[in-house]
Write a structure and sequence with these properties.
Layout: H1 3-14, H2 18-23, E1 31-34, E2 49-52, H3 54-59, H4 70-77, H5 80-97
Antiparallel strand pairs: 1-2
This protein binds zinc ion (2 copies).
Residues 17, 19-20, 28, 52-53, 55-56 line the site of one zinc ion.
Length: 98
């Protein structure tokens, strides 16, 4: 991993869960999810990542956790690509005011 990638991942995680943010739960500690959409068998780059809390990432169960079922997750919270776009906008916003 390059220094740039490492920096980006730490910035993504530092945003807090993007779904919790949209639900108005405030800043929930997040881990990084590499998006699946459009990747085929290859892993997404470290720049195609979203911050998700444990519940929204892995442990929340069907309809809540991304890895419990992508379709149900996206029906509830928006698609991976929408959330990726939003993550980028939030980071851009921080850069603009830094
Ligand atoms: Zn969350
Ligand atoms: Zn993931």
């Amino acid at each position: 991993m390059t220094a740039n990638e490492r920096l980006h991942l730490s910035r993504v995680a530092a945003l807090g869960c993007i779904v919790c943010r949209n639900l108005g739960y405030g800043m929930t500690p997040a881990e990084v999810h590499h998006i699946r959409t459009g990747q085929g068998l290859k892993r997404a780059s470290h720049f195609e990542t979203l911050p998700l809390c444990h519940a929204h990432h892995r442990t929340g169960g069907y309809g809540v956790a991304f890895h419990a079922g992508k379709e149900a997750f996206e029906a509830n919270y928006g698609t991976e690509l929408e959330l990726l776009q939003q993550t980028r906008e939030v980071i851009d916003e921080i850069d603009r005011y830094a």
